């Protein structure tokens, strides 16, 4: 078969957090290209924080993330709730077509073929016929389908999904899981925050169990053991407001992230007023 | 009747200038107002309109009633307040509304102080309430140029701006356009406020931006329709306000804004997005 592929993402002693409190603490690991990884762990375990860090929305406090082979902009990130303004007067078609940004940019028009691809993406998520509906008229599940259609058009080799199945009915979840499995078959790398362990066992070959500290990372069957899960629960409980400073350092590779230009090409943009990362 | 509507404009040059000024404002300032509305920044537009006062007043203090000095002063003051508020927002715990409020209140107080130090009350009235019926060539050219620049910039920024309003996180993820769209838009707001203040004064410049936009939002489902309708409402209100001012001998600026208000209230009552329609019983709903 294929030779062993180089890692798409290399995480070196990564610490991410808010106000110096780590939410992801000293994480190490390689994620190979084409992996389908479930990120699991109790609430507050740093799952969303890790994805934010990978997406470049959050600058590491320590350590670094390397994605040497990934071209800039080749990463699609679906935040948990997004900042979508539901009352904005745009149609479902327009929203999904935003996924073509990398091809059309700020000024390009949509070709006939691209329009057809938008319609195909809508059909793939089961939203045919919704093209001209205002985005605000969609239900929660339909909106999530539309966001997945946009992801399809983004055509990214690395896809980060933050709890894509939260508050979504089971039929929609099944459809969306199928899409994720299709992406996996196409060789894309997908990291998904999931809560339903049954789902993880059934569909995700690799799991990363987080509890601020990394608990386990590897084949799902070896990660989702009662012992590991109990350890994750124990670790996540304490959040000490006056925690002492952490001085664990790896002997090398713990340079601050800003000295490492290939960490991320984006995420240096400004943040609008309604967005605040301090939760 | 036609005489009543047309002859003020055919007989008097100052009315024609005012009409041209209203058209330019409707074309330039109102689309900016639509985006202010959609970005939930209506009140910030109001705050910023006050913020340009001290700059205009300083220009006036230094050079007298000079169009150029007051315009440049207004633009500079507006940009300083926008940037300072943006800086405070990102570097402190204050949200944008609070930091902007702080800066514009200080700015307004400083402006009134400066004007009253040297000027006569009449000048203050001129700055506060504008003079759409006394637009000279320079002012008219300025308003028209700003409208032209605005339309070009909006056309260039349109897609990033819509995405910045609708889903800023997504825009940040796929491109670096987010700050360009945000600050570019704020600059357009300042420019149009300055243009509006020559015609309607600092206090009412926002009126022709926000009121027609709010009225149009009640009718339109899509963005192109919304923009077109807002421009139409603004221009119609301008014409009506000017005629009202001419025949009833009332000040033109407030008349225009009040007519915008009438359009808004009618829309509020009659439009599909307004107060009444949602409350009427539905006789036949659709099958799906």
From TrEMBL, chain A:
Disordered: annotated span: 241-279
Q: Where is the composition biased (Basic and acidic residues)?
A: 268-279
Q: Name one Pfam family in it.
A: ABC_tran
Protein origin, superkingdom = Bacteria
List membrane-spanning regions: none
Keyword list (alphabetical) reads: ATP-binding, Cell membrane, Membrane, Nucleotide-binding, Transport
Q: Which residues form the signal peptide?
A: none
The record, for SMART domains, names: AAA (SM00382)
> Domain named ABC transporter: which ranges?
9-237
Member of which family?
Belongs to the ABC transporter superfamily.
Q: Which PANTHER family match?
A: IRON TRANSPORT SYSTEM ATP-BINDING PROTEIN HI_0361-RELATED (PTHR42734:SF5), METAL TRANSPORT SYSTEM ATP-BINDING PROTEIN TM_0124-RELATED (PTHR42734)
| Name of this protein | ABC transporter
This protein's species is Thauera propionica
Q: What is the lineage of its organism?
A: Bacteria, Pseudomonadati, Pseudomonadota, Betaproteobacteria, Rhodocyclales
TrEMBL record, chain B:
Q: Where in the cell is it found?
A: Cell membrane; Membrane
**What coarse category fits the chief subcellular location reported for this protein?**
membrane
Q: Which InterPro entries match?
A: ABC_BtuC-like, ABC_TroCD
Record-level GO BP terms: response to zinc ion; transmembrane transport
- Keyword Transport present in the record's keywords: the answer is yes
Q: Which domain of life is it from?
A: Bacteria
Give a GO cellular-component term.
ATP-binding cassette (ABC) transporter complex
- Report the PANTHER family cross-referenced here: ABC-TRANSPORTER METAL-BINDING PROTEIN, IRON TRANSPORT SYSTEM MEMBRANE PROTEIN HI_0360-RELATED
Family per similarity comment? Belongs to the ABC-3 integral membrane protein family.
Membrane-spanning intervals of the chain = 18-38, 58-88, 100-119, 140-162, 182-211, 223-246, 252-277
Which organism does this record belong to?
Thauera propionica
Q: What is the name of the protein in this document?
A: Zinc ABC transporter permease
- Which UniProt keywords are listed? Membrane, Transmembrane, Transmembrane helix, Transport
Give the record's membrane topology. Answer: Multi-pass membrane protein
């Amino acid at each position: 078969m294929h030779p062993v592929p180089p890692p798409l993402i290399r995480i070196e002693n990564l610490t991410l957090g808010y106000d110096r409190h780590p939410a992801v603490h000293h994480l190490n690991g390689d994620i190979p290209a084409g992996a389908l990884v479930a990120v699991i762990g109790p609430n507050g375990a740093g799952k969303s924080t890790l994805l934010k860090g990978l997406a470049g929305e959050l600058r590491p406090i320590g350590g670094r993330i390397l994605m040497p082979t990934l071209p800039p902009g080749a990463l699609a990130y679906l935040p948990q709730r997004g900042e979508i303004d539901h009352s904005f007067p745009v149609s479902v078609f327009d929203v999904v077509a935003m996924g073509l940004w990398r091809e059309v940019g700020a000024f390009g028009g949509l070709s006939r073929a691209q329009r057809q691809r938008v319609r195909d993406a809508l059909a793939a998520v089961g939203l045919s016929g919704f093209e001209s509906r205002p985005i605000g008229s969609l239900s929660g599940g339909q909106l999530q389908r539309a966001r997945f259609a946009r992801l399809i058009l983004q055509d990214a080799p690395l896809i980060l999904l933050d709890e894509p199945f939260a508050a979504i009915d089971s039929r929609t979840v099944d459809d969306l899981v199928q899409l994720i499995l299709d992406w996996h078959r196409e060789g894309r790398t997908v990291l998904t925050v999931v809560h339903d362990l049954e789902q993880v066992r059934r569909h995700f070959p690799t799991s990363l169990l987080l509890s601020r500290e990394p608990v386990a990372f590897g084949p799902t069957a070896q990660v989702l053991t009662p012992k590991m899960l109990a350890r994750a629960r124990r670790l996540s409980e304490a959040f000490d407001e006056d925690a002492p400073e952490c001085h664990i350092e790896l002997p090398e590779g713990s340079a601050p992230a800003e000295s490492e230009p290939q960490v991320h090409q984006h995420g240096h943009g400004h943040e609008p007023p309604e967005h605040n990362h301090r939760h | 009747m036609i005489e009543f509507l047309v002859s003020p404009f055919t007989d008097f040059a100052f009315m024609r200038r005012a009409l041209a000024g209203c058209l330019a404002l409707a074309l330039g300032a109102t689309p900016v107002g639509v985006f202010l509305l959609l970005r939930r920044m209506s009140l910030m537009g109001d705050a910023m309109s006050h913020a340009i006062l001290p700059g205009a007043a300083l220009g006036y203090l230094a050079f007298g009633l000079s169009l150029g000095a007051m315009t440049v002063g207004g633009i500079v003051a507006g940009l300083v307040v926008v940037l300072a508020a943006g800086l405070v927002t990102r570097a402190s715990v204050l949200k944008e509304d609070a930091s902007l409020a702080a800066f514009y209140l200080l700015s307004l107080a400083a402006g009134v102080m400066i004007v009253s130090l040297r000027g006569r009350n009449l000048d203050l009235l001129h700055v506060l309430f504008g003079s759409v019926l006394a637009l000279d060539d320079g002012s008219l050219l300025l308003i028209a140029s700003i409208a032209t620049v605005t339309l070009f910039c909006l056309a260039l920024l349109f897609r990033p701006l819509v995405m910045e309003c609708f889903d800023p996180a997504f825009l940040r993820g796929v491109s670096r356009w987010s700050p360009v769209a945000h600050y570019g838009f704020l600059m357009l707001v300042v420019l149009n406020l300055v243009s509006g203040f020559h015609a309607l004064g600092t206090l009412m410049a926002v009126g022709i931006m926000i009121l027609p936009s709010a009225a149009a939002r009640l009718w339109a489902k899509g963005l192109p329709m919304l923009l077109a309708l807002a421009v139409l409402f603004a221009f119609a209100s301008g014409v009506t306000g000017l005629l009202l001012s001419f025949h009833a001998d009332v000040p033109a600026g407030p008349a225009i804004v009040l007519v915008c208000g009438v359009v808004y209230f009618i829309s509020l009552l009659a439009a599909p997005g307004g107060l009444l329609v949602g409350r009427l019983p539905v006789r036949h709903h659709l099958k799906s």
